[in-house]
Structures are given as structure tokens and as C-alpha cells.
């Protein structure tokens, strides 16, 4: 008899784990509270570990079909001087699709694998015995319940799995701008000036992904629509790009979520519900994908789900926690470093990122092989 899984949340993580389970023979149903499946429009970094994970669930080719293959990631200071550069190769790639394209690829992969997706299905709770409870009181027993309901997870809170939620000093505005002839097409540029950052990411033949980061007390920096004059004054090199910004975009304050455990009985947390993190290293979704495919492998190899979930967390959590810490530390260097000492920050980063150990820590997740990847 096929084992069943009920998944709360049809975001990137929910669809990834649902597809991974279905491909291993599970009967899977995903519950989405919205009336339709939609994804906020911006770009997304897909590192090698994320690309390999998407390949394992058959979503990679469609996700990156119109995406930009990144040649290099350059981080520069207020004078345009390199603080560090990170190149990419055929075995250590970075591809940058529009988020909506990635989302559609996951929707199509899930449906192709036989996943049932139910919209306007509001989840209220879950019980450790393996029951998903809907807002209308409906109880859905399952062999596995997956909480992929985001950083503010109702299921995580109902099971009291939260250890700590931290709101960071900085926040982010992420959006898409039209591409024009002559634009840089394969290099990500991350420009720092004081406690502000501008991220320019080529994403497709039509659009670029642009992000702004600043402290929460920077009122002009965090305003939406974007205060173009303020940002162009800080980053005059990118004034022409900034001028293309429309009225869209949104401000999101950075946050991290830590849990006392990733599971309780037959209920398991994935994605932001388990390990929301600052987007500074672009690894949030990638770690979600690698954890999703390894979760499916863990529970499919053993009929007893509860110890399989514990073993999965023991194996995967150390790397996820590592990425969360380093992403937080990366943001701290921007937002907390005294502005009058910006030149010393440049020298510090030039020195630190040239150390092999630091390079290894920064790229530990990107060079991690997901469970099931035989290469």
C-alpha cells in the first residue's frame, strides 16, 4: 500500500519535497492557502548544490531554460575596488533564473510526478501522530506531514518546535528591471557603500534581478516605491539601472529561525519553517532543495518514519546551521561595520577571503553533493 504525505504550503520547499516523495512512490497532497499558485517576482541564485537537487526531481532543465549562466560574482567597495571575486566553472556553477520561472518548473515537476495540489486549503495545525488539521476542522491522517508553511509557520508554533526567531538589523528590497543592450550579461556585481548594498544580477534575456539592502533605520533606503534619487546618490555607477525601476518591489526585514528540532513524531519542518535565514549568501532555497531530496530518501528507505526523521536531521542540520551562521555574519560586516572605517573593511575582506579556510567555509554548501547524486 502506498504511503501518504500531506504537505502544508505550495512554495518552493513544499513543491520540492512533494515531488521528491512522489518520485519515490508516495501519494502526496499539497495544501496552499492562496486561491492560485503565484510567486513574487525577483531573481534567485541557484548554486551547484541547488541545481543538482533540482536535477534529482526533474525540475532543473525547465527552471534554467531562459536563465543567465553566471561567470563571476564580484563584491566591490564604494571606490569600485574589489573586496573579493568568486568565479564559477562547469562543475561549480551559478545560474540565475527569474523566480517565477523556477516556481513554474517546480509546479510542473510536481504535477508530472502525480502530486495533488489543492488551493484555498487553509492549514490550522498538525498532530505528531501524523494528522494535518485544516482550518475548517477537517483531519487528514498521513504517514508523513510536512510543514512547508514559511518562516511564520503555524505548524511549528503549534508543536512548540521554535527555539528562537531573530529579526536582523538589515532588510531587503528585491525586484526585476528591464534589460537593455550593452548591459553586463554574466557577472553579478555586489556594491557596498557604508551600510548599504546594491546587488546587480543578470537573470534572463529580458530582465535583471536587482536588490537593495540597508539597515531598518534607513527610512529612505527601505521606502517602497524605491527612492531612486537616494540610491543613485549612493551608487552613481548604477544610476542608469536604478532609473529603470518601476513602482513594484517590497521591503522584507531579514530574519533567522532556529528550531529545537526539525520534527515531532511524524511531522517535519522544511525550508523557512525550519531554517529561515538572511539571503546574503543566496543559499536559502538551495539548502531547502538539498534537504528536501535527502528527506525523501530518508523516509523512503525505512518504514518507521519517526527515527528516519531524526537521522535525517542529524545528517543534514550541521551544514544548514553553518550556512545560516555565515550568512548572518556576512550581513553583520555590512550593517554593523562603522562607516568611517569602510576602507579598513575592504582590506579585511581582501585579506580574509584569500585564506583557503574562509573560502571553504563560504562555499561549503555550494560544493555539497545532495543525497542521491552519484556524480
TrEMBL record:
Pfam families recorded: FAD_binding_3
Keyword Oxidoreductase tagged: yes
Keywords from the UniProt entry: Monooxygenase, Oxidoreductase
Ranges for domain FAD-binding: 7-297
GO MF assignments: monooxygenase activity
InterPro entries the UniProt entry points to: FAD-bd (IPR002938), FAD-dep_Monooxygenase_BioMet (IPR050493), FAD/NAD-bd_sf (IPR036188)
Gene3D superfamilies: D-Amino Acid Oxidase, subunit A, domain 2, FAD/NAD(P)-binding domain
Protein name in UniProt: FAD-dependent monooxygenase
Species this protein is from: Pseudonocardia acidicola
Organism lineage string: Bacteria, Bacillati, Actinomycetota, Actinomycetes, Pseudonocardiales
Amino acid at each position: 500500500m502506498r504511503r501518504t504525505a500531506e504537505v502544508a504550503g505550495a512554495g518552493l520547499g513544499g513543491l520540492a519535497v512533494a515531488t521528491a516523495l512522489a518520485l519515490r512512490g508516495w501519494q502526496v497532497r499539497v495544501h496552499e492557502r492562496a486561491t492560485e499558485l503565484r510567486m513574487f517576482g525577483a531573481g534567485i541564485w541557484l548554486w551547484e548544490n541547488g541545481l543538482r537537487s533540482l536535477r534529482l526531481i526533474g525540475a532543473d532543465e525547465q527552471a534554467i531554460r531562459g536563465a543567465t549562466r553566471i561567470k563571476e560574482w564580484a563584491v566591490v567597495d564604494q571606490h569600485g575596488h574589489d573586496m573579493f571575486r568568486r568565479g564559477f566553472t562547469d562543475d561549480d556553477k551559478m545560474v540565475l533564473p527569474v523566480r517565477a520561472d523556477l516556481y513554474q518548473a517546480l509546479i510542473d515537476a510536481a504535477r508530472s510526478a502525480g502530486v495533488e495540489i489543492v488551493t484555498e486549503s487553509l492549514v490550522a495545525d498538525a498532530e505528531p501522530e501524523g494528522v494535518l488539521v485544516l482550518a475548517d476542522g477537517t483531519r487528514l491522517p498521513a504517514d508523513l506531514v510536512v510543514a512547508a508553511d514559511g518562516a511564520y509557520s503555524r505548524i511549528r508554533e503549534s508543536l512548540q518546535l521554535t527555539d528562537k526567531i531573530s529579526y536582523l538589523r538589515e532588510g531587503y528590497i528585491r525586484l526585476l528591471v528591464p534589460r537593455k543592450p550593452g548591459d553586463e550579461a554574466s557577472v553579478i556585481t555586489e556594491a557596498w557603500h557604508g551600510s548599504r548594498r546594491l546587488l546587480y544580477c543578470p537573470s534572463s534575456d529580458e530582465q535583471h534581478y536587482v536588490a537593495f539592502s540597508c539597515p531598518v533605520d534607513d527610512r529612505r533606503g527601505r521606502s517602497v516605491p524605491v527612492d531612486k534619487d537616494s540610491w543613485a546618490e549612493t551608487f552613481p555607477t548604477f544610476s542608469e539601472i536604478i532609473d529603470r525601476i518601476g513602482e513594484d518591489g517590497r521591503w522584507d526585514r531579514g530574519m533567522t529561525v532556529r528550531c529545537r528540532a526539525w520534527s515531532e513524531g511524524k511531522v517535519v519542518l522544511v525550508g523557512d519553517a525550519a531554517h529561515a535565514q538572511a539571503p546574503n549568501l543566496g543559499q536559502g532555497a538551495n539548502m531547502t532543495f538539498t534537504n528536501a531530496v535527502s528527506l525523501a530518501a530518508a523516509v523512503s528507505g525505512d518504514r518507521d518514519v519517526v527515527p528516519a526523521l531524526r537521522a535525517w536531521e542529524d545528517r543534514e542540520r550541521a551544514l544548514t546551521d553553518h550556512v545560516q551562521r555565515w550568512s548572518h555574519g556576512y550581513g553583520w560586516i555590512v550593517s554593523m561595520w562603522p562607516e568611517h572605517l569602510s576602507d579598513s573593511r575592504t582590506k579585511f575582506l581582501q585579506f580574509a577571503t584569500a585564506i583557503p579556510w574562509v573560502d571553504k567555509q563560504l562555499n561549503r554548501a555550494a560544493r555539497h553533493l545532495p543525497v542521491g547524486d552519484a556524480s
